Every structure is written in structure tokens, then in C-alpha cells.
Amino acid sequence: MDDLSYWLALHKASGIGTATFSQLFAHYTTPSLLFNSPETLKQLDLTPIQRSAVLKAIQEPDWKTVEQERIWSENCENHILLMSDTDYPELLKQIHSPPPLLFVKGQIDVLNDIQLAMVGSRNPSIDGQETASQFACYLAQYGMVITSGMALGIDAHSHKGALKAGGKSIAVAGTGLDRIYPARHKELAWQLIEHGAIVSEFPLGTGPMQYNFPQRNRIISGLSVGTLVVEAALKSGSLITAYAALEQAREIFAIPGSIHNPLSRGCHQLIKSGAKLVETADDILEELSSLMLASRAKTDSHESENPDKQSIDPLLPKIQQKILQNIGYNPVSIDTLSERTRLSIADINANIVLLEVNDHILSHPGRLFSLKSR
């Protein structure tokens, strides 16, 4: 029995919440020590109820469920991360009460990319929908990962906007990752898995219980350098996320709206409390420019250590980056690029001209293109 199996048994156990699990995780270098010597629990500052829950988990572990979760994690797109793992998101470690264990479905490396949380009403106005999509699309083109909760409304439009730009997006679920909630977002979920990730602190089999969603909001903000609220009423889950970001010392951005729109009042309250008023996505990029530059410098440094790898400007739109990654030094046709990238010929034609004008590629007779040597 390995450490992860023991931790999964404790994580699944009834009565063991995040606070209790965190104490156990911090105290025991390996959970087998706890299972073999339960008397050591006396060393921890646990309440009688907490101690009783842990003892019951040790005496009656649900190994069947643990085995199911281990089998789930054997799929190449599924991952279970402990807070001690190198792939565990660094920013999330810094918040109060970080989840000691994360289930991840999708691209695990995206968890440590620079993220912006985007949240808002589940019943937004048409203006709010368009604003969320446009902001997410623009920011994703500049390399920001858009993180949200995959809920109806602003969340969904934010995810879709990022994906439309060829960018990455992360959803934090309020259920176990063997479920998709809401069910109508099945197609969106698969796009997120392919071009980002879905994350949850809840064990497999956890349904959409109402109290799970406010709890998961701290993860949405905790993964991100800042939170943008697009539309929100005065009493909404979006404000819970914003205030979590405030407690985590992260940036808070809010888009103002009409004084007659009740969905603007939450944003106006945030602005009165010190959130940065934003009118364009550039307002956010200016505020976070130092982080973006640091990320780009890190990328450039990595590429200089790997001189055989073609250097691609990370600030280019994602669709242009994808074309450059698939073009090579041997001339290729538009049809070949379409097959390699799975982009439409129209999209490639629209961007290939910009890449040529900006001196990234060379054109050859017969409408063939290749990378320009540096």
C-alpha cells in the first residue's frame, strides 16, 4: 500500500474535512505511521469529534473506493495531486486552507501558468455575455489562462472566449470529476480537458451539493493572480470569489455597468471597496504586466537552454503560435497546415498573412510557407 492510497482513504472518510486532513498531512511524513500507530493522534490539536472521525477512518478504511480512484488516475488525462507534489499549483499553496489533495482531468502543466479568474452572474445580460467572451478571448491571446467555475452564464462565456482564441482555460468543479455539472456543459468540459484542465478537491462520486460551490470558489481565486467580476448582484457567489481573492491578497477587477442594472451593483460595490475599475482588457494587462514579463523571461530562459527548439513569441495570438509550431523549415501548403493544426483553411489564410508581414515566416512559389531562420 503506497502513501497516496492511505491519503485517499482519509480524504474520502466521513467527518474528515480540509482542516483535519491538513493537520494530518502536515504532521505525518507518511500516512502509514498514522495507520500503524493511531495513538500518535494525541500529539495533534484535534477535537474529540475530529479524533473520532480519524480513528474510524483508520479502523474502517474504504479500500474499494480508494481502488476506484486509483484506477481512475491510471488514465493518461487523469491525475491526483498531493500538496507535496511538484505539479501542485504554487499559488494555491499560499492561500489559507489550501486543498491538500486535488483531482485533475486534463493538461496538468497548465495549473502553474499565469491565470486570471473570471466570474459573474449565472443569468447575465446579453451585454455581460459578450463582455465576458470578448475579455477572455483577448486576454487568452496574450497568454493568460482563464479560470472559472464552468457554471451557466458568465463562467461558461469566459471559458468559451478563451478557447475561441486558441487559448487555455481551467474549470474548478464543485463535484467529483466523474460527473459533469451542469450536464449541458458536457461538450465544454471535453474542450477544457483538451485545452486546459478541470480541477476539484472533492472525491469521485461527489454530487452537486449546494454548499460545495462556495467552498470551491476559494480555489478559483487561489489559482489566479487576480479575479475579474463581469456582472454580479449584491448577493452572489461571484462576490464570495472576489472576497476570497481579497483575503488571498490577489488583485480584484470589476467591470462597471448601468446604475439601473441590478447585475451591476455587485461590481459597483467592489469598486467602492477598492477593486480596480476596468473598461478594457488592456487595463488588466497593464496591471499584471510585470507578471506577464516575468513569465515571458522564464520562457525565453528555458528556450535558450534548448537551442534546438524553435523560439515562438508567447505574446502572439494562440492560433498563430499553433501555426508556427506546425510549419517547420521545409515549405508546406495551406492544406497541409490545416491537417496538422486542425484549423480551418480560412483561419490559416487570415493569420498566415500576418505571420509573413511580421517576419515570422517565408513564402515560396505555389503558396508554400516555411519558418524563417533566426
Specify the biggest β-sheet.
9 strands, mixed
The N- and C-terminal alpha carbons lie at a distance of 52 Å
Which structural class best describes the helix and strand composition?
alpha/beta
Strands of the widest sheet, in order across it, are: 1-2-6-5-4-3-7-8-9
* Percent of sequence in beta strands: 5-15%
Using the CA coordinates, give the radius of gyration: 23 Å
Low-confidence stretches: 298-309
Strand and helix order:
HHHHHEHEEHEHEHEHEHEHEHHHEHHEE
CATH architecture of the largest domain: 3-Layer(aba) Sandwich
Q: What value does the average pLDDT take?
A: 90
The number of distinct β-strands equals 12
**Total domain count:** 3
CATH topology of the largest domain: Rossmann fold
Count of alpha/pi helices: 17
Shape: globular
CATH class of the largest domain: Alpha Beta
Overall helicity: 40-55%
Walk me through the structure:
By secondary structure, the chain is an alpha/beta fold. It has three domains: 3-74, no CATH class; 105-289, Rossmann fold (3-Layer(aba) Sandwich); 310-371, Winged helix-like DNA-binding domain superfamily/Winged helix DNA-binding domain (Arc Repressor Mutant, subunit A), CATH 1.10.10. The chain contains 17 helices and twelve strands. Strands 1-2-6-5-4-3-7-8-9 form a nine-stranded mixed sheet, with helices on both faces. A three-stranded antiparallel sheet has the order 10-12-11. Strand 4, helix 8 and strand 5 (169-172) form a beta-alpha-beta unit. The chain is globular, with a radius of gyration of 23 Å.
